[in-house]
Structure to design on (580 residues):
């Protein structure tokens, strides 16, 4: 047990959502030596990748674009079949998408013909839950994401942040073992994103779901994660694992977070540069001195 | 407004220049003809005189009894054509919808039929008439065959294209939420395809209406549709009736398109938050 976890268990105030106790060991997601190559490409998107998410752990996967992080998530969700390896959830193998591994998509994936409330209700309806119970659960879920007033709105009437919150509620209402999030906040503006980070953290502290979160933003990763997995691109493999042992809920503006972001960024910088070099678009940020020297030369011959 | 000006100018030019009514009629003649087909006698087209427009000039009133308006040729023709349209278009939706769905679901079907159907769309629907006559004979089935052939390919192609634009994320989301098998079709793909369906229906209708009019013009069967009235007008060299029936075809087509299909499309688009239809 890390220091961070201990602090959560013992720290005050006690997390209120510890009340509905989950069965022990629920939400252990194991990816075991996954191989995945897309047809028509020689390069493996993911090769021999193993990753274990412990129950209640918040794992964030970062890496440059095209490094296979979305592939990884889709394999875990059961949307993609890996060529090799297995995916286990609480010891049971996975062979397809299902409500035990709820996904929050980057572009929310809400159904535009349904209202926000109906979107949340959809999965419950599919599971055959009774009408009265569904209504109750939907109300609860809407309250949880602070959208009690917007249940009757159509998807296009919601803002980007509200849509993502509905998408999260739609996933959580299924009471999944694992929550899989595929760059869920990438399309939001910076302010909304910060708000969403805080709300997601709250939700996680309340529900203690296992979360596998994919992003290309280091800041996002450090704010949210218990553990950051840095992926190596072409082929996708794990390059580094960084435990973030700060207690939740975190103050995103704290100095520790800033320092950690800096440290993690340095760790993945090499990787980003390597990928960019492969794509023949190598660009390294210049120091102010470089720029200054350049400017001094300008117009020198006039 | 602009239409009123055009029609008035036309009418005025006719009165001043004195074109022959049997070469090219004035709007008033067309109006007379339309009313005549509704079993109402009117003489708007004649010069102003005592009793205009309800009594003819220098002519004994026609005292033969006429059947009431609801049994007039035009009303009957509308009913006959309308029934054919409903029956034929329903068949067309079933066949076209099925073909479109198959083409969307299986690539092989699409590769085989896609180009063929596109080719069929270039074939004017009246070109199906000889085949229909030889295969089905001169009867209702023949007319329906032409209508179905004229519209089902357009529906199939439009539906396939529309279904292809459904974002794959809906399917993923549906599966993730436990909607597998037929429930994926019923609760995810069917509603997701509504915008595509309404557009394909709208397009299919205009094809169906055109095919039906063409078929009725040529098929001489006992039940007389709009196309038949057009044919009669030609047979009797009644140019006013020809134009009156043509105008009627356009009006019916426009009304159904605007008040039914466009309205439907608009509602669906509003629900989906897409840009309002035109």
């Amino acid at each position: 047990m890390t220091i961070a976890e201990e602090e959560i268990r013992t720290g005050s105030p006690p997390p209120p959502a510890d009340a509905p106790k989950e069965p022990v060991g629920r939400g252990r997601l194991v990816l075991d030596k996954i191989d995945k190559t897309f047809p028509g490409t020689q390069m493996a998107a993911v090769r021999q990748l193993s990753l274990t998410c412990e129950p209640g752990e918040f794992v964030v996967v970062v890496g440059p674009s095209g490094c296979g992080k979305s592939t990884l998530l889709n394999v875990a969700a059961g949307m993609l079949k890996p060529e090799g390896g297995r995916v286990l959830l609480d010891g049971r193998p996975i062979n397809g998408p299902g409500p035990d591994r709820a996904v929050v998509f980057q572009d929310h994936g809400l159904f535009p013909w349904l209202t926000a409330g109906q979107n949340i209700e959809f999965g419950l309806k599919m599971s055959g839950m009774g009408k009265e119970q569904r209504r109750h659960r939907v109300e609860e879920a809407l309250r949880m994401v602070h959208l009690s007033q917007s249940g009757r709105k159509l998807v296009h009437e919601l803002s980007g942040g509200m849509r993502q919150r509905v998408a999260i509620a739609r996933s959580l209402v299924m009471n999944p073992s694992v929550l899989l999030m595929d760059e869920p906040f990438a399309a939001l503006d910076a302010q909304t994103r910060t708000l969403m980070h805080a709300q997601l953290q709250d939700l996680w502290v309340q529900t203690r779901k296992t979360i596998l979160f994919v992003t290309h933003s280091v800041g996002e990763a450090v704010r949210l994660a218990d553990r950051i997995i840095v992926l190596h691109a072409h082929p996708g493999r794990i390059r580094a694992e960084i435990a973030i042992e700060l207690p939740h809920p975190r103050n995103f503006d704290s100095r520790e977070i800033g320092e950690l972001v800096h440290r993690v960024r340095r760790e993945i910088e090499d990787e980003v540069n390597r990928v960019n070099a492969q794509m023949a678009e190598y660009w390294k940020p210049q120091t102010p001195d470089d720029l200054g020297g350049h400017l001094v030369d300008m117009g020198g011959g006039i | 407004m602009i239409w009123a000006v055009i029609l008035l100018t036309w009418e005025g030019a006719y009165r001043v220049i004195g074109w022959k009514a049997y070469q090219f009629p004035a709007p008033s003649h067309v109006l007379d003809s339309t009313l005549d087909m509704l079993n109402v006698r009117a003489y708007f087209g004649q010069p102003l005189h005592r009793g205009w427009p309800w009594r003819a000039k220098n002519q004994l009133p026609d005292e033969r009894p006429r059947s009431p308006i609801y049994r007039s040729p035009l009303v009957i023709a509308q009913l006959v054509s309308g029934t054919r349209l409903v029956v034929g278009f329903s068949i067309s939706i079933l066949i076209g919808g099925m073909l479109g769905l198959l083409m969307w679901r299986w690539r092989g079907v699409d590769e085989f039929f896609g180009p063929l159907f596109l080719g069929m769309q270039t074939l004017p629907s009246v070109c199906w008439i000889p085949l229909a006559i030889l295969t089905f004979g001169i009867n209702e089935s023949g007319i329906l065959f032409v209508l179905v052939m004229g519209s089902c390919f357009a529906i199939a192609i439009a539906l396939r294209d529309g279904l292809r634009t459904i974002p794959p994320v809906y399917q993923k989301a549906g599966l993730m939420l436990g909607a597998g098998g037929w429930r994926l079709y019923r609760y995810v793909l069917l509603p997701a395809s509504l915008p595509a369906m309404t557009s394909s229906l709208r397009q299919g209708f205009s094809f169906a209406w055109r095919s039906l009019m063409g078929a009725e013009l040529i098929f001489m069967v006992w039940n007389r549709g709009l196309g038949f009235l057009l044919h009669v007008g030609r047979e009797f060299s009644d140019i006013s009736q020809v134009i009156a029936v043509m105008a009627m075809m356009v009006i019916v087509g426009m009304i159904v398109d605007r008040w039914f299909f466009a309205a439907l499309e608009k509602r669906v688009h509003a629900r989906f938050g897409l840009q309002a239809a035109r």
